[in-house]
Amino acid sequence: MVCTMLCGIAAQTEVTAFRPGVTIEGVNYFLPMTQLRIAFVAEKSITKPGDYAAYANRFLRLADVPQEESTLWTIKSLQVVPYGVPDSTKAFNIKLRQKTSAPLVSLSDDGLLLAINTDGEQQPLPDLPEAIPAPKPLNGRDYMTQDILAAGSTAKMAQLTAEEIYDIRDSRNALVRGEADNTPKDGAQLQLMLDNLDLQSRALESMFKGQTLTSAEVQTLEFTPQAIDISATEKEAYAEQRTMLCRFSRRLGVVDSDDLSGEPVWISIKPLGTLPQYQASTDSDKRKHKMEQGVWVNVPARALIVISTAERELARLEVPVAQMGSTEILSDALFNKRMDTRVTLYHHTGSVANIE
Prior knowledge:
There is one protein chain. By secondary structure, this protein is of the alpha+beta class. It is built from six helices and 14 strands. The strands form three sheets. It has a five-stranded antiparallel beta sheet with strand order 1-5-6-13-14, with no helix packed on it. A five-stranded antiparallel beta sheet has the order 9-8-10-11-12, with no helix packed on it. It has helices spanning 56-60, 146-150, 154-177, 187-209, 234-237, 282-291, and strands at 3-6, 15-17, 26-48, 70-95, 104-107, 113-116, 211-223, 241-249, 253-255, 263-271, 295-308, 313-330, 343-345, 352-355.
C-alpha cells in the first residue's frame, strides 16, 4: 500500500537531516540504497540405487549401476534483480508550515519518497523463477507378479524380476512385428499397449539400475554493493569491488562463504565512469546553502555486475546503484505557491523519473 500524505511545502521549504525525537511536525522520508536479489536456479539430481543393484550384471548384464545414493547440484541460470531499501544515512524531513499550499507527498510502505504533488507507485519485485519438483519415482513392486513377491530370497526375487523383464521385451517385440495373437488393428490401441509395456519394463528395470530424479530448485540471497568513499582518491573510489558472494557445492547447492564444501562464487562490481568532482567557491557555497531547503533525490551511477565461478561466467549486467552515485537537491523554488510542480521518483533508485 502506498502512503499518501498531505503536507505543506512552503515558499521556503525546510528539509533537514532526520533526527528521531527532534522533528516535531513534518514528513520524514528515506532515499533508497540499492540491494541485489540474486536467485540461483539449480538442477538437483538425486540418484537412488535399485534394490537389486548387486544383481544387475548377473541377471541383466548391466555394468556400473549405482550402488549408493548420491546428489548432484548444477547451476543452470541466475536471476539478478536490483531493488531499493531505505538508506539510514539518507533520511530527511519535510517540515509542515502554515499558510502554504498543501502538496501530496507519496511514500512507500517503508518510507521511501515516491512522488510530490501526485500519486506515486510502488514497483513490486518480479516473481522468482519457478521451482519444478522432481517427478514421482517409479515403483517396480507395483508390477511384480505373485511368484516374484513369494520368492524366499532377494537373489530369487531378482532372478524372477529379470525373467519378467525379458518376457515384457518379447511381448513388445511381438506386437511391433505384428506376430502377437492379440495385436490390435487400431493404431492408437497398439500405441497404448506399447506404452504400458514400456512403463512396466522401466519400473522393473529400476529395481536393478536405480533412478535419477531431477528437480529445479531456486535458492536466493541478498547482496549490498558498497558505497563509494568520496574522500578517497578517484582511482580508489571507482575501483572494482570483488567479493566472494557464496560457495556452490555439487552436493549441497548454495552454501555460506565459509563452508569449504563448495567452490567460490565471486561477484565483481565496477562503476562505469566517474562523477564530476564538486568545485567549491564562495558563490557556489552561497547558492548551495539556499538550495538545501529543497528536496533531496538520488543520482545513481551505473555499474557493471559480473557473477562468476572459476569455471564460467554466470551473469553480466549493468544496473543503476544509488550508493555509488550522488545526492542532489531539487530547489524549493519548484514548490512555492506560484508553481504547481509534480515530481515522481523511481521507487528502487530514488532518482527523478519525471518533473511536470
